[in-house]
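Work Package 3 (structural annotation) set out to generate three-dimensional models for the target panel prioritized at the project kickoff. During this period the team completed the workflow that converts sequence records into discrete structure tokens, so that structures can be stored uniformly alongside our sequence database. As a representative example, we reproduce one entry of 98 residues exactly as it appears in the project archive.
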Amino acid sequence: MERIIAKRTLREFWEKHPETEQYLKTWYDTASNSDWKTPNDIKNTYANASILKNERVVFNVKGNDYRLIVKFNFEKSWIFIRFIGTHAEYDKIDANTI
């Protein structure tokens, strides 16, 4: 079972972008109840997820209109929300270091 830090970030985002609420709630529930030990485990659940350097994974939200970047600590089963934003906002950051 994964521990996600911080759901509040997701909630604040879906309050501003209600079209993302159902996706983010589903992602949160799926991630919380998963036992991902490797990036391949994530890919088995989310085939379109992009595995990056530094234990980061990018998830497409709402048909790739938005991007969610999380950092994993597989050893401790922790997931850290690092970024959520539009595709245009995503293009302005370095997903490997955020």
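The longest strand covers residues 78-86.
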